[in-house]
Design goal:
alpha+beta, YbaK protein, Hypothetical protein af1432, 2 domains, five-stranded mixed beta sheet, three-stranded antiparallel beta sheet, 23 helices, 10 strands
């Protein structure tokens, strides 16, 4: 039965299945808008699976679910249920999100003891933007059959990527020493045996730093690397760029379709990409590596066109930031192979947290720190270093902020368009204003990219080869 102290919204705002489940269990509750509650009192449910067994795990949203600890205590190998399973479950009950009600789904459940530490708690109710409020007695009653297991830890309130770039080397060194058996060297570069840049990458970087470099020199460098030359020509012939006629040479691709800036940054992105082996493992909700990279780069290109002239960054570098934005993820797999699978599985069961928070909790560093550090080691332009380092910090306003802000905006726009299972994709009005954009024209740029999805996926396939 509903509590007498209901918010402006009422129980009638809930799906009938939710309302009937609470009524049948004789649970007193209230209904609230999510933006009116204390986030520290908001609970989070995640559906995990071991073979054919499913379990609903409930933790505070301010906590990270420790999958290794849950597995050890229950003697199971739990991992996040497949996205398709979760979406099918939501569809069968006509819900927007996973309601924190194990009895509704007839599921076994586990609650971390921290769930019961407050006089009131708020639970997702299946409707975006709404939660149900339960006082302590009602919460105990609702989860009376749930097993109580210590399986989560509170997350520090300070975001992990707020430190300066200069402090990253120390944190990475500490993580490497703590989590690997590698010898301690004076220089981190020696400790990690950084992949050596290819000759092509070195030549492209050299051309980028030469103000007088021309199309002939760029074409000559690209043509000395046959796979790269083939990819540049295929890129120019793609329906996405709508070449006016057949592309006959690399120079033709540069002059008539792509332009010097795009080709030099595309060549650099492709060349750098060959220096790290992409991990076979990745979180199940993630878009494939190069597909995500190309979508992000293409969206940044579109957003840049819409920016006021005074705020526009160098288009080629902004595009390259999108192309390389997730390099740190591949580097995490390279540096911490024994822990990388745990990182992926923990990301899958903590969709309410940013990837940076999860990675810092497990490893002591984030993909943003690793990616920016690698770019520094490879001596790429500083704009790229800062774009990669602060791409998950939407309020960053320091050096080269435009590149970081654009990369952040593009990723969040793409994430909002996905199936809605992931969180932390809010875009503030302040972020739009700093870039001279607004939600309407950003959505136009996004729709152009989504409208060219087939062509962009074809381009991503070239990178995979």
């Amino acid at each position: 039965m509903p509590d007498s102290k209901t918010a402006p919204v009422t129980e009638k705002s809930l799906p009938s299945a939710i309302w009937h489940a609470l009524e049948a269990a004789d649970i007193a509750f209230s209904v609230h808008r999510t933006d009116t509650i204390d986030p520290a009192l908001h609970l989070h449910a995640v559906l995990v699976q071991h073979l054919n067994e499913q379990l609903l795990v409930i933790v505070p949203r301010t906590h990270i679910l420790d999958l290794a600890q849950l597995n050890a205590i229950t003697e199971r190998s739990w991992k996040a249920a497949a996205n398709s399973s979760v979406l099918s479950l939501l569809a069968s009950y006509h819900l927007d999100n996973l309601a924190t009600l194990p009895t509704l789904f007839n599921l076994q459940s586990v609650c971390d003891p921290a769930v019961f530490m407050q006089p009131v708690a708020y639970l997702d109710c299946g409707v975006s933007g709404l939660v149900i409020g339960l006082k302590a007695a009602s919460l105990d009653k609702l989860f009376s059959s749930s097993q109580r297991i210590l399986c989560s830890e509170p997350i520090p309130p300070q975001p992990p990527n707020n430190d300066s770039v200069a402090s990253d080397v120390v944190e990475i060194q500490q993580a490497v020493v703590r989590l690997t058996s590698r010898r301690i060297h004076q220089r981190l570069q020696e400790t990690l045996e950084i992949p050596v840049l290819s000759r092509t990458a070195k030549e492209v970087l050299r051309l980028r730093n030469e103000p007088m470099a021309g199309i002939d020199e760029l074409a000559a460098v690209v043509e000395t690397d046959p796979p790269l030359a083939a990819q540049v020509m295929s890129w120019a012939a793609s329906p996405y760029y709508a070449a006016p006629s057949k592309i006959r040479s690399v120079e033709d691709a540069i002059v008539r379709v792509l332009g010097f800036e795009l080709v030099i940054n595309l060549a650099l992105g492709l060349s750098l990409g060959k220096n790290l082996t992409l991990p076979n493992d990745q979180p199940q909700h993630c878009t494939p590596y190069w597909q995500q990279a190309i979508y992000t780069a293409a969206l940044i290109e579109g957003l840049t066109r819409l920016m006021p002239v005074k705020k526009k960054p160098e288009t080629g570098l902004a595009y390259l930031a999108g192309l390389l934005h997730n390099f740190g993820f591949a580097l995490l797999a390279h540096v911490f192979p024994p822990y990388f699978s745990l990182v992926c599985r923990t990301l899958e069961v903590n969709l309410h947290l940013s990837h940076s928070t999860v990675e810092h909790h497990l490893l002591g560093v984030t993909r943003e720190q690793m990616g920016a550090w690698l770019m520094q080691c490879w001596q790429v332009p500083d704009e790229l270093v800062y774009a990669l380092r602060y791409q998950d910090t939407p309020d960053y306003q320091g050096e080269y902020a435009t590149y970081a802000n654009l990369t952040c905006l593009a990723q969040r726009l793409l994430a909002q368009n996905k199936d809605g299972l992931t969180a932390n994709n809010h875009i503030s009005e302040d972020l739009y204003q700093r870039l001279g954009l607004n939600e309407d024209n950003a959505q136009l740029a996004l729709q152009r990219v989504l409208g060219a999805e087939q062509a962009l996926r074809a381009l991503a396939t070239q990178f995979n080869h």
